[in-house]
């Protein structure tokens, strides 16, 4: 029997070159599942989303063949890397990704919010960021985001700066007062020691960026900022807090785990040589 991908819709493409298309997974002419492919040629990055195989057809290599076929499509779209997400607890999904040469790059961690908001240590207080602080923070965050794009997506320096500026502008179309975005400054004994950027995502509050000034690190301020995330989320009526951490960042993983964050999704990547 032959496993193939069959498009279920026309190729969707926006003016910037991004592509998107849904496919059925078929064994001969019989549909057994599906997936969605998307690509950002400017990044050289493709994504496999929503892979599913009917229960009766699992364990027969259908998913593996479908992923390999999807990689060929993404190569034809100009992608140099492919990414995919495996839900935490999906042992079959984790085995499949590993067997096909995918490497875990990052994890989405999640913590259910309940009860009362945790307090901050004595001498610490969180306050909204001011307009003057926003300009300085934006420049610093843009540089930091560009560094991540270079390291994890392989973008060149100029392209990384351009994409980083575009991403931040999209998140803050109205500056500091942009809907669904909140910026906090942590002060300890009257001195600003760190910043927190959180965003609303349906029922969750998402940690976009947390930073402690270098001269104030190692004193528990990062833990305080994450505690404030929980207070912020509970105030806004959210059910959980989420964040993404690269698996190479062992200290951050330890911190988040100690605060009760648990794996929610595993992010895998693979070069398309």
Written description of the protein model:
With 273 residues, the protein is an alpha+beta fold. It folds into 2 domains: 3-106, 3-Layer(aba) Sandwich (Aminopeptidase), CATH 3.40.630; 114-238, 3-Layer(aba) Sandwich (Aminopeptidase), CATH 3.40.630. It is 32% helix and 38% strand. The chain has 6 helices and 13 strands. The protein has helices at 62-76, 91-99, 131-153, 157-171, 221-235, 250-258, and strands at residues 3-7, 12-13, 19-27, 30-40, 45-53, 81-87, 103-112, 124-128, 181-188, 191-201, 204-212, 240-246, 262-271. Strands 1, 2, 3, 4, 5, 6, 7, 8, 9, 10, 11, 12 and 13 form a 13-stranded mixed β-sheet that branches. Helix 3 (131-153) packs across helix 4. The longest helix is centred in the middle third of the chain and has 23 residues, at 131-153. The model has no long low-confidence stretch (mean pLDDT 94).
Any descriptors?
single chain; 273 residues; alpha+beta; Aminopeptidase; 13 strands; globular
Straight-line N-to-C gap: 28 Å
Structural class computed from helices and strand pairing: alpha+beta
CATH architecture of the largest domain: 3-Layer(aba) Sandwich
Q: Say what the CATH topology of the largest domain is.
A: Aminopeptidase
Helix content: 25-40%
Number of helices: 6
Instruction: Please tell me what the overall shape is.
Output: globular
- Spans of 5+ residues with little confidence (pLDDT < 50)? none
Largest β-sheet summary? 13 strands, mixed
Average pLDDT figure: 94
């Amino acid at each position: 029997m032959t496993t193939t991908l069959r498009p279920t819709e026309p190729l969707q493409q926006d003016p910037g070159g991004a592509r998107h298309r849904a496919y059925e997974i078929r064994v001969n002419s019989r549909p057994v599942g599906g997936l969605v492919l998307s690509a950002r040629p400017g990044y050289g990055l493709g994504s496999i989303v929503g892979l599913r195989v009917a229960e009766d057809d699992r364990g027969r290599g259908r998913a593996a063949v479908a992923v390999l076929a999807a990689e060929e499509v993404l190569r034809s779209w100009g992608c140099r890397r492919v990414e995919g997400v495996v839900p935490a607890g999906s042992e079959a999904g984790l085995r499949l990704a590993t067997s096909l040469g995918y490497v875990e790059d990052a994890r989405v961690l999640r913590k259910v919010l309940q009860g009362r908001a945790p307090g901050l240590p004595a001498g610490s207080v969180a306050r909204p960021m001011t307009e003057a602080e926003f300009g300085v923070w934006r420049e610093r965050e843009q540089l930091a985001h560009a560094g991540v794009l270079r390291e994890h997506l392989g973008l060149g320096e100029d392209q990384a700066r351009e994409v980083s500026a575009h991403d931040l502008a999209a998140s803050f179309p109205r500056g500091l007062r942009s809907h669904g975005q909140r910026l906090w400054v942590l002060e300890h004994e009257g001195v600003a020691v760190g910043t927190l950027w959180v965003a609303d995502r349906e029922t969750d509050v998402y940690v976009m960026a947390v930073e402690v000034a270098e001269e104030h690190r190692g004193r528990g301020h990062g833990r305080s900022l994450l505690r404030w995330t929980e207070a912020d989320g509970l105030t806004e009526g959210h059910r959980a807090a989420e964040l993404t951490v690269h698996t190479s960042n062992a200290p951050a993983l330890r911190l988040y785990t100690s605060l009760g964050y648990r794996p929610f999704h595993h992010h895998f990547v693979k070069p398309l040589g």
